[in-house]
Design goal:
18% strand; signal; 3-stranded antiparallel beta sheet
Length: 106
């Protein structure tokens, strides 16, 4: 239990250091053309999902999130410095869901 707590604190500290945590509520509130039924990830799940997505991409910033996505349990949109975006799909345990063949966005 102590290791999990330390990992969560370290993850939150890392996100704060990257300036990610402060911008998440605004990013989730932005209208990006998704339907109104989309539900943003909140609370501790938001911190964990964001950390998992940024660990997967290695860079960028979280610009939108969704829980109950049609492709996975969590979806985290990461935007890179050049403006390109990638959606990272996560399961309930915040593990990356491998892309289905032919189903990747570009």
């Amino acid at each position: 239990m102590k290791t999990t707590h330390k990992a969560a604190v370290a993850g939150l500290a890392t996100l704060a250091g990257l300036g990610v945590v402060g911008g998440l509520p605004a990013a989730n509130a932005a209208d990006t053309g998704h339907s109104e039924s989309d539900t943003a990830i909140t609370g501790a799940a938001l911190v964990q999902a964001s950390a998992a997505a940024l660990a997967e991409t290695g860079q960028g910033r979280v610009t939108e999130t969704e829980v109950g996505d049609e492709e996975s349990y969590y979806e985290v949109e990461v935007t890179f410095a050049d403006g390109t975006e990638v959606d990272v799909q996560l399961d309930r345990a915040f593990q990356v869901v491998p892309a289905l063949k032919g189903g990747a966005e570009g």
